[in-house]
Every structure is written in structure tokens, then in C-alpha cells.
Specification:
The relative contact order is 0.16. The strands form 3 sheets. This protein has a 9-stranded mixed β-sheet with strand order 14-13-12-11-7-10-9-8-18. Strands 3-2-1-4-5-6 form a 6-stranded parallel β-sheet, with helices on both faces. It is an alpha/beta fold and about 400 residues long. The protein has 2 domains: about 140 residues, Rossmann fold; about 180 residues, 2-Layer Sandwich (Dihydrodipicolinate Reductase, domain 2), CATH 3.30.360. It binds nicotinamide-adenine-dinucleotide. The site of nicotinamide-adenine-dinucleotide has 25 residues, from helix 1.
């Protein structure tokens, strides 16, 4: 694979804290040439850390540099404008989640990328975490039978939660029931320096075309792990012949199905080694009556932490798509579908808890509210991308 000139666009918490160190470690794939952030001090300090050049606007970045690929880590409201600009200039890119705030804005991105033959990947990281990849492998082998129900309660929700539910369901969503509840909380700042004065709680119940039913409960305060919320959670996959609770597989020994059907727990084991002072994940393995399952870390030579593997996976997906002229592993359509499910849940909650069917009749009432608040916040129409490229988007 030839080395690609890479620019990081947005060097805030996620850009500088999570993406930049991984780009720098994937040296044989990416030549980390530039950091672009509208905040001058941020752009300069992060660029200096990686021996890259600093830019304060994407227009200046593309005027001065030959960029092959970009990693877009600006606030979610800015994704469509920056993505539009990159696509119009032929720059392939990875965009952080959510793909865009609404479906019309996601469609604008997808259409512009297609028109310019630009590869667009979405940085959906939850299913890419090593333990989730391991679980995907074991579930595909059918050890708990056919999946029937999913629970994701007090864990990450929104588009990330929907992504995992959809992948675990193995089907296409047909409808969603959403319930929302907003309550006051004592003003607090969470560990990610986000400020909260209200708790926005949602419940989503999703039906899939293969008969799977999924339930999700989530709130910003649960996500923040603040006020004791989210300390315990339920992540459960019910199958016809067993259950996954958290990371553990519960399987009934053969012959005991008619005598209590008490299951035994099988826990995946991580095997690590030390390299350059990092505890590197070598593999995850688990022995079951159905055999031995092993997931091998394809990035072990880069001395990444376990948490960095999902980011390496999404960056490499983009690099392979560009170098081999193929579709990215996840892709914009999947990112759009996750956001469609999330918006559908909110739409159902907005329209008196009526079940909403997919595909959504977009723009929904909820999406129109988002576009109106966009106009108020940024002073122009959400689709006015030419203007929005030069707007500073504050932390959401
Ligand atoms: N996948 C995940 O698990 C995960 C986790 C956290 C955040 N995110 C996503 O990452 C993205 C960034 O989030 P964050 O928490 O780092 O935000 P942040 O506000 O900390 O950082 C965003 C940066 O973008 C810069 N910026 C704003 N407008 C700009 C513009 N027009 N051009 C260039 N730079 C601009 C800001 O100065 C800031 O430094 C969001 O899309 C968010 O949803 C994803």
C-alpha cells in the first residue's frame, strides 16, 4: 500500500486525544502532513507534536497541501459542510460519528462524494472494538443459535447503540417506538468536560425484518457516567440456544436441556504482550464445547493500546478503499442507517409515541426542529455548505 498524505481536521478532544496518536503510529500507511483546526493554539500545538503543518481553515489547507485523505473530527453539526468541501476537492475522508445531524445533510455528503468519486468512510467504532469483533465471530458460528432479542440498557445509545443492535440483529430495521423524558439534574461537568443541566432520556424498541426485537435505554447522564448513572448496565443477546450477557457466553451442556437447562458461562480471555511500554493485545480466545474461538489482532505490530484498535481499523478501511479502489468496510450508507434509526426513535417520541416505520419520511418533524435550531445557532440554512465551511462550530 502506498503512503497517503493525511490531514487531521478538528484537533479537539477526539481528534487530538484519540485519532492523532493512531495516525502517527500507522506511519507506513499515512504521512501525517497537516493539522487543521479553527482554533489557532490547538492547531499549532497538535501540529507541532506530530511534526505536521498547522492550518486554521480547510480552504487554506487544500490551497497549500497535496492531501490524499483526511480525518474529519470536527463537531457533528459541521460534518456535512467539511465533507462537502473535501469531496468537491477530491479528498477521500473518514468522518466521525454521527455521519450528519439529519438525513438530508447525510444525503448531501453521500451524493457529493459519489459525484466526485471520493471514498467516504464513517468512524463507527463500537462494533470495531476487539471484544465486539470477537463476539461477532462467535455469534456467526451459531453457538447461541439464532438471535431473537437484544437489550442495551444504560450503555451507549443513539446512533452507536443502533449500529450495534443492527449488527447483532443481523437484519434491517422495520419500525421503532421511541419514548423520551427530560428532567433537571444538578448542574455538572462530566469527565469529558461536557456540561449538563438536564437529563435527556430515551427508550427505543426496534423491530427487524428477521423477527429480532431490540430494546435500548440511554441518556446523556448515563453516557457521562455521572451521578451514579450507567455504573451498571445490561447488554444481553438472547438466542434460541443460549445467551450473551456482557462479554460472557452462557451455553447449556448437551443433554441438560430437559433437566433445568442451567447454562455454564464461558468468558473470552485476552492474551497480551508488552511492546514499547504498551500492553498490546495479541488475541482474544475462548474454549467452548463447540470448539476454540480465536480473534487475532491484525494491528499488533503497531503497538496500539486496545482502545486504539477500533480507530486504526476505521483509518485502514479508508486507506484500503483508496489504494484498492473498493468500498470502505462500513461506509456512509451504514452510518446513515444508524442515524436514521436514531432519528426514527426521536421522531416517535416527538409524535406522541407513535410507532415510526422505516424508511423514514424525511425530513421528519424532529429533523425540521434540528434544521430550525441550526439556523438559530449558526445564522444560516443547514444546507448552505459554502458558508458553513468557514463557520466555527463550538463544542456540542
Ligand atoms: N466515535 C466516538 O466514540 C466519539 C466520541 C467522541 C466524539 N466523537 C465525535 O467526534 C467529533 C469531535 O468531537 P469532540 O468531542 O472532539 O469535539 P471538540 O469540540 O472537542 O473538537 C472539535 C474541534 O473542531 C474545531 N473546529 C470547529 N469548527 C471547525 C471548522 N469549521 N474547521 C476546522 N476546525 C473546526 C474546534 O476548534 C475543535 O478543536 C464529533 O463529531 C463527535 O460526535 C465520536
Amino acid at each position: 500500500m502506498s503512503q497517503l498524505n493525511m490531514a487531521l481536521i478538528g484537533a479537539g478532544r477526539r481528534g487530538a486525544g484519540a485519532h492523532a496518536p493512531v495516525i502517527a503510529k500507522l506511519k507506513d500507511v499515512f504521512n501525517f502532513v497537516a493539522v487543521c483546526d479553527m482554533d489557532e493554539a490547538t492547531a499549532k500545538s497538535v501540529a507541532e507534536r506530530y511534526g505536521a503543518r498547522a492550518y486554521m481553515s480547510v480552504r487554506d489547507l487544500l490551497k497549500s497541501e497535496e492531501i490524499d485523505v483526511a480525518d474529519v473530527v470536527v463537531p457533528g453539526d459541521a460534518h456535512h459542510a467539511i465533507s462537502w468541501f473535501l469531496s468537491e476537492n477530491g479528498v477521500h475522508h473518514l468522518v466521525e460519528t454521527p455521519i450528519a445531524a439529519t438525513l438530508p445533510l447525510a444525503d448531501l455528503m453521500i451524493e457529493t462524494a459519489q459525484k466526485n468519486r471520493v471514498k467516504l468512510e464513517v468512524a463507527e467504532n463500537y462494533y470495531r472494538a476487539p471484544m465486539e469483533q470477537f463476539k461477532s465471530q462467535v455469534l456467526a458460528a451459531g453457538v447461541i443459535g439464532k438471535v431473537s432479542r437484544l437489550y442495551r440498557i444504560f450503555h451507549e445509545g443513539g446512533y452507536h447503540g443502533m449500529s450495534l443492535l443492527r449488527i447483532r440483529a443481523g437484519g434491517h430495521p422495520t419500525s421503532v417506538l421511541g419514548i423520551a423524558h427530560t428532567s433537571e439534574v444538578t448542574p455538572l461537568t462530566d469527565r469529558m468536560k461536557r456540561h449538563h443541566t438536564q437529563e435527556h432520556w430515551t427508550l427505543g424498541v426496534v423491530d427487524f425484518d428477521n423477527g429480532v426485537l431490540a430494546t435500548m435505554i440511554y441518556s446523556n447522564v448515563i453516557h457521562a457516567r455521572s451521578l451514579g448513572r450507567g455504573v451498571g448496565g445490561v447488554s444481553q443477546i438472547d438466542g434460541t440456544a443460549g445467551t450473551v450477557v456482557g462479554d460472557d457466553f452462557y451455553l447449556v451442556p448437551p443433554g441438560e436441556l430437559q433437566t433445568g437447562a442451567v447454562a455454564q458461562a464461558y468468558t473470552p480471555q485476552r492474551v497480551r504482550f508488552e511492546q514499547d511500554g504498551v500492553q498490546v493485545l495479541d488475541r482474544i480466545e475462548m474454549q467452548t464445547p463447540d470448539g476454540q474461538f480465536v480473534w487475532n489482532n491484525p494491528f499488533k505490530r503497531y503497538a496500539l493500546t486496545e482502545g486504539q484498535i477500533a480507530i486504526a481499523d476505521e483509518l485502514m478501511s479508508l486507506a484500503r478503499a483508496v489504494c484498492e479502489d473498493r468500498e470502505p468496510d462500513y461506509g456512509a450508507a451504514a452510518g446513515r442507517l444508524d442515524q436514521e434509526m436514531n432519528l426514527g426513535m426521536h421522531e416517535s417520541a416527538t409524535v406522541n409515541r407513535q410507532v415510526v416505520t422505516f424508511p423514514l419520511q424525511s425530513p421528519t418533524t424532529y429533523e425540521r426542529q434540528i434544521h430550525e435550531s441550526f439556523q438559530q445557532k449558526y445564522g444560516c440554512d443547514a444546507r448552505d455548505v459554502e458558508r458553513l465551511v468557514d463557520v466555527f462550530f463550538p463544542r456540542l
